[in-house]
Write a structure and sequence with these properties.
By secondary structure, the chain is mainly beta. It has a single domain, classed as Methylamine Dehydrogenase, Chain H (7 Propeller), CATH 2.130.10.10. 7% of the residues lie in helices and 42% in strands. It contains two helices and 14 strands; from the N terminus they run βββαββαβββββββββ. The strands form four sheets. A four-stranded antiparallel β-sheet has the order 1-2-3-6. It starts with 10 loop residues before the first strand and ends in a 22-residue tail after the last strand.
Length: 198
């Protein structure tokens, strides 16, 4: 029922593509992004393609379950979101950027700076079968010096990007309170009984 497979180094985010076929396992200390194949996982389990076990749980061979690796994407990969065109967007905590890459070819397509040390991302509908693929929000962690202090709690930063074209474009850089963490965004018309409060 349970199986392990290796993920270099110090894994953090684990995100599944809209098709359900690809699993992105970002390692905070890795200089690459490993992308695993669900089909290959099933075949490796059926073939008992194990390298051993950990506390009685079988460990699958890395090479047997790997779709491929995104080479030299940036420093400190954390979380990945997806658009509706077969692309992925990964946050890089150390190099403070979002990197766009193609899930099938594993090629880096674009990169854009964040301020600073981005953690989670949100593409509306990104973790569903049908992402909307127009906007991306970056939730930045170490940004306490970016905005003027307005009280006892200092503002953090979030950024809104347009991802509808080939290149990502910064649309809005705005303050937020508390460490911005994971959040999901959906079009307002998907929320029943919603009201605008003026």
């Amino acid at each position: 029922m349970f199986y392990f497979f290796p993920c270099p180094k110090s894994p953090h985010g684990c995100d599944v593509s809209p098709t359900g076929e690809y699993i992105v396992g970002s390692g905070k200390l890795a200089a690459l992004i490993p992308v695993f194949s669900f089909d290959k996982l099933q075949k490796a389990i059926a073939a008992k393609d194990f390298i051993g076990d950990f506390d009685g749980i079988p460990v699958l061979k890395y090479e047997s379950v790997l779709h491929g690796e995104v080479k030299k994407p940036g420093l400190g990969p954390l979380h990945t979101e997806f658009d509706d065109k077969g692309n992925a967007y990964t946050s890089f905590f150390v190099s403070s950027e979002v990197v766009k890459w193609n899930v099938q070819s594993l090629k880096v397509l674009d990169r854009i700076a964040t301020y600073y040390s981005v953690g989670h991302l949100s593409v509306p509908g990104g973790p569903t079968k049908k992402p909307h693929g127009k906007y991306l929000i970056a939730y930045n962690k170490i940004t306490k010096d970016r905005y003027l202090p307005t009280g006892p709690e200092l503002a953090q930063s979030a950024q809104l990007y347009d991802i509808s074209g080939e290149k990502m474009k910064l649309l809005l850089d705005f303050p937020t309170i508390g460490e911005p963490h994971y959040a999901e965004a959906v079009p307002a018309d998907l929320i029943k009984n919603s009201r605008e409060i003026l």
